[in-house]
Amino acid sequence: MQHKTQSAVFGKRREPHTVIIARGDEIRHFTIRPWIAAAVGSVFVAVAIGYLLATSYLVLRDDLIGASVARQARLQQSYEDRISALRTQLDRVTSRQLLDQRLMETKVSELLQRQTQLYSRHGRLQPILDRAEGGGLVPELVPVPQPRPADRAEIDPATTAKTARISAAAADQNAPDEFALWNTRTSFAPTASAADKADMLFAAINKSLRRIEDEQITRLSALAQDADRAADQISEALVDAGFEIDTEADDDGEASGIGGPLVAIDDRRAFETRVEALDEALTRLEQLKKKATLLPIHSPAPGYSVSSTFGVRRDPILKTPAMHSGLDFRVPSGRNVRSAGQGKVVAAGWNGGYGRMVEIDHGDGLTTRYAHMSKILVKEGDIVERGAVVGKVGSSGRSTGAHLHYEIRRNGTAINPLRFIKAGRKIAELL
């Protein structure tokens, strides 16, 4: 084995490391250079460090994965909590909307029912108002809500409630009807919701319908009072004239003895009560008018004055006191003679001193006579109406000149016609 000389310029000479392996007679040796040793050491150190790093990574990886999983779980839980909160809020909002919708549907149904009820009252009111107008009363216009196209068809409350919410939300910009116009004139808070505006809209509609109901009841009461007043005037006039009229106590609350427990009534019953009261008042008025029409309370010569009154007077021919059983009207010859009331002609022809005479039976023992006529225009058995022409004025019979002799007899006894004529003048406008 040869040994190479090493330079000792820089100090002690270093011999290379030699590894000798002997096996039996065989001997092997390896010379290890420093750089080889350094390389092998470096590789060993690198492997050791890599091993340590890999081991550390494997050890720490579970912690990192666990931390990441925990972080993901926390994020997921946070998201789930937030989603749950949002779902709860959405359910609350949805529930409120459903509740608002149900409330609106209920209110819309109630309002439509009230409006339909008010409109249906018009069918009940119209005949009785026609009766009042035909009876000489002047009924003030009773308000009634005009039906809209939707009112004539089947209405879905849910759709109507949805429409009401939309209309309430846009009421400030678009006013579809009179109630929305009221909505635009009302100062809503800037933060008012659509439901609040809808409530205000419903309140306005309800107030309007309530006003219509109150006006209907008030005006029906006024009509009933007018009818009772007119009936009382007719009754008083006929009683003053000597007719027997069934009088009833006025239902105006002015009697001396009244009372009783307070029993509240609803609007429907109040309306029905007013309608019944008006119907009874009109029935009474119509009966009195019918009776007054039959009675001889009108002048047979309207517009002409009386020349001779009822009672004792100087006879125009004999110039002696005599009983005058009627009234003489100063009427020119040929003018019309009119029936003082409705009745049946029981006599039409010549009757001694009466000359040409017509006698009419008005019932209840009352008859009227029209004498001294120049011409008779009816015949016995005819039914004549009040004011019908029964003949022409003349001077037939025991008479000194053209005039109309008019008598009223009750059960054959002559009575003063002037009382009847005065009663007729008092109630002429009511008939």
Can you describe this structure?
- It is rod-shaped and about 210 Å long.
- Strands 3, 6, 7, 8, 9, 10, 11, 12, 13 and 14 form a 10-stranded antiparallel β-sheet that branches.
- The protein is α+β, with helices and mostly antiparallel strands and about 425 residues long.
- α1 (about 35-135) runs parallel beside α4 and α4 runs antiparallel to α6 (about 415-425).
- Among the domains are: about 125-250 and about 265-295, no CATH class; about 305-425, Glucose Permease (Domain IIA) (Distorted Sandwich).
- The protein is built from 6 helices and 14 strands.
- It starts with 16 loop residues before the first strand and ends in a 5-residue tail after the last helix.
Class computed from helices, strands and strand pairing: alpha+beta
**Helix-strand string:** EEHHHHHEEEEEEEEEEEEH
Assign an overall shape: rod-shaped
Q: Count of DSSP helices?
A: 6
Unreliable residue stretches: 1-5, 147-191, 247-256
Overall mean pLDDT stands at 75
Assembly category: single chain
Total strand count, please? 14
Largest sheet: 10 strands, antiparallel
Radius of gyration: 59 Å
Percentage of residues in helical conformation: 40-55%
- What separation lies between the terminal Cα atoms? 168 Å
